[in-house]
Amino acid sequence: MRHLRLVLGDQLHPRLATLTDLDPEADTVLMVEVAEEATYVRHHKQKLVLVFSAMRHFAAELRERGVRVDYVELEDPGNTGSFTGEVARAVARHAPDRIVVTEAGEWRVEAMMRDWEEAFGLPVEIRDDTRFLCPRPVFARWAEGREALRMETFYRAMRKRTGFLMEGRDPVGGQWNFDHDNRRRLPAGHVVPERRRFAPDAVTRAVMALVARRFPDHFGDLDGFAWPVTRAEALAALRHFLDDCLPGFGDYQDAMRAGTPFLYHGLIAPALNLGLLDAEEVCRAAEERWREGAAPLNAVEGFIRQILGWREYVRGLYWARMPDYPDTNALEATRDLPWFYWSGETAMACLAECVRDTKAHAHAHHIQRLMVLGNFALLAGLAPAQVEEWFLVVYADAYEWVELPNVHGMALWADGGLLGSKPYAASGAYIDRMSDYCRTCAYDVKAKSGETACPFNYLYWNFLITHEERLSRNPRLAMPYRTLAKMAPARRAEVLADSARFLDNLNASEGEPGGERAVGARAPDLFLVDPAG
């Protein structure tokens, strides 16, 4: 039989289920660059370079193994710009007996796949994605009947299922989670490792030119592109992290420092989500470092929890609750996303720093995303759909299956507690404790009220007041609500007034605290993204 085997741009693993029984004499692997996928959101320029370059390298590696690859580049004549259109053209070219694919990462893409059998009059075999450690049906069985889907419960089940960091039925070290040990601020003068980056080769440089030409108005810088685009580079990036960064990852995984975007973080999520690495090999390599005595348990457990726990968990939740999951808006947040999420032009140093990092590298680490960018969106009541689209646009590792639950459920609590037991709301004190951002900020993190006070301070209490009826019975918020109950009426009024003043001026450009200019006063060339786009 002749099989047409479609490999998507985020499925670039040599042991992908689509390829396991490939017959080089009869089968054709189809890979396509399509405009629809590049523009359904306006992806960061580096994300587009990463995906297209990695696809081209992967196709070349398959050809070196003797595999017949039909590769359609973005600017090839006749490219229809969509998966369905390109599969239709490939069916006409190759007259296959069957189409073979691996289940998609995103709901909308798999919905297309499920229409192909009828559209093309051919059997379409959709295989399980074995790059993940928890198959979708396993997660669905675990989630069945549960009102709340807690990651910690799932994570423990996955530890038992896989045996990672286990001694029989018990966790190594006598406890499941060392998160309490992983919250240290970087000491003054602390030197972090120099990070391994990858210079663009000829293939990547050609793709960079393509993206600059075809997508000039997309968010982000291209000049600093240095992500791994091959499996060999991804494995080198993993080894570098394990050797140079994993020992310090645990202690400092929540820390932030201006001008130091990468710290001890893995920087492997873009490669992992593309398929250049898989979850099992990453977890196994980290566990081996602990068993060899090369990395402490709190670091290794914290890292494995991000992969085996969190990453597998959000994927399972996504598929269990789609397509209705993004429709919820438990806190009725409706405010428009402010322009500084695109420009970085705000007097709030923490937000400006995180946006600058994001623009330069298509990267910000998980605390920057959750406790600065996400926390502000939560406190300001930004519309979930707009915040979710922003996160999907700007990060190299962002795909809807991982981005949507993280933002909708974790950062914004828009699912009403299905994912997280409480909203992750915090005042400026948290950012000050975990970073050096506040030292150079125009706002005063110690001040609680007034035009020069850190907006996170009064917005935090404003958030609790606004949602008091819904959240005050949450046991994990008992302490702040006890404090709020003792707050004098005059102080409450001050919080509400400061918050109203600030939120009414959210669409602001550069300027001093309390004196921001309206966005409309900005020069047109400062707009980084078309607001209607």
TrEMBL record:
One of this protein's Pfam families, by short name?
Answer: DPRP
Quote the InterPro entries the UniProt record gives.
Crypto/Photolyase_FAD-like_sf, PhrB-like, Rossmann-like_a/b/a_fold, UV-DNA_repair_photolyase
Name of the protein? Deoxyribodipyrimidine photolyase
Its source organism is: Methylobacterium indicum
Lineage of producing organism = Bacteria, Pseudomonadati, Pseudomonadota, Alphaproteobacteria, Hyphomicrobiales
